[in-house]
Amino acid sequence: MSSCCHDPTEPPRVDPRDVLREQEHYDNLVRDLFTGDPERILLRLLNESNAYLRELAALRAHYPAVRLQAIALLNDKSLDALERISEKELDSPFGEAARQRIEQLK
Prior knowledge:
mainly alpha, 6 helices
């Protein structure tokens, strides 16, 4: 069989360099969590995360600074999450931050 064509029945092969890169990233993250300030580490990771993880952090993060930063990073596609926060937590700083972010996005 020729190696010139892609066989769709064959599972995609993972580049070993990608595996090593992810293992190193994971090991560094675990080391940082054990030896550093978890709140600062989560804030750094929040900036690199996708919209789903930002919404999740805005709704349920343990650290207040992480929740507030996540709310500030949400975009117009996350209006439902912002509205849920503003309705659910009317008198909290999170509800106020969500309302301010909604106004900025409109």
